[in-house]
Design a protein that fits this description.
Layout lengths: L4 E5 L3 H12 L3 E6 L12 E4 L5 H10 L2 E4 L6 H10 L1 E2 L3 H7 L2 H10 L7 E4 L2 H6 L6 E5 L9 E4 L2 H6 L8 E5 L3 E13 L2 E4 L3 E6 L2 E7 L5 H17 L4 E10 L4 E7 L9 H4 L4 H9 L12 E8 L2 H6 L7 E5 L10 E9 L1
Parallel strand pairs: 1-2, 1-4, 2-3, 4-5
Antiparallel strand pairs: 6-9, 7-8, 7-9, 10-11, 10-12, 10-14, 12-13, 13-16, 14-15, 16-18, 17-18
Helix pairs in contact: 1-10, 3-4
The structure holds adenosine-5'-diphosphate and magnesium ion.
Adenosine-5'-diphosphate (ADP) binds next to strand 10 and strand 15.
Amino acid sequence: MTTINLGIIGGGQLGSMLASAAKKLGIKTVVYCDDKNAPAQNFCDEFIFGDYQEEEKLNEFINKINLVTFEFENIPYETLKKINEVKKVFPSPEVNKIIQNRLTEKDFINKLNIKTTEYKLIRNKTNLEKISDFLPGIIKTCTLGYDGKGQFKINTKKELDNLNIDFNKEYIFEKLVSLKKEISVIITRFGSQKYEIYEPIENEHNEQILKYSKIPAEIDNNIFEKSKEWAKKIAEELDYIGTLCVEYFIDKNNTLYVNEIAPRVHNSGHLTINSHNISQFENHIRAVCALEKKETKKLFNANMVNLIGEDILKYRDKKFRENEFFFDYQKKEVKPKRKMGHFTTLIK
Ligand code: ADP
Ligand code: MG
């Protein structure tokens, strides 16, 4: 059998964990990233440092691989489209085009008759003034936001009046949901109606950054089924190949909303490395490389804590029990609010 050379765009922790999963399956990986200190270079077979628009470097990358996937959704659409003309990109760049922008993403979800938060496009001062009747809410940049970056919480009319945002960018305003809980559903789609789906994961955020995840989620059967069903519908409709995550809000009246879609492996699914026979990363690699789809089963309940900023320092020389698993992303610099590692505990 000839070896598959898989290109991975993005070299953070998700790229690292994808590369590790690929290695286990005998697949070689080439990671392409615009950060010369990208941690994934410690886990992949080959690393290329280059900008996401740098044609020469991208060509060097394309020549080394058979197919491409990515660890994050904010790669320029034009870049993915160009690569896809030469070597196949999974999931399809068309998926990214929809999901890269919070407005087109939410419009897409609503067209499927799936509920999202109420939202409005903001392009100028007049649009901004009109939202005063819908407060409190959050203004988010339409593109390039993650871990709460590019978001402004607006509680009062006064805060709205004092807000100074750059109208060279577009924003959406989202009405604040009175949250009871957040959950996510991770699904890997291999082809039409062919998927492996993980049970809903319960998530807790601190300052808009994921802090804790656990299975089982404490939710009723109706939410359990509906969240899985919506994730399947979204994956089918996108004709998705690979692992995808749907983030949900549940409000105080037990109403389920889609918050956002991540067209990639997801932080809340890190616990699947230890809790399941096949992790979200391995399933992603299996799907994009067209390997055998294997029945995915839960082995243990689990919880995960994200180690953010200096949290990591306490864990580096800690002793662990046999049901505890520590992952150090090997990032060169410890920075506040930066995801540095995670820690999973299996509940036996
Ligand atoms: P990111 O792309 O940064 O993950 P999200 O839209 O998922 O952005 O927001 C991050 C977190 O902020 C959410 O998981 C949630 O905790 C909180 N949040 C965002 N939007 C809302 C909202 N409309 N109502 C309540 N909480 C919200
Ligand atoms: Mg999010």
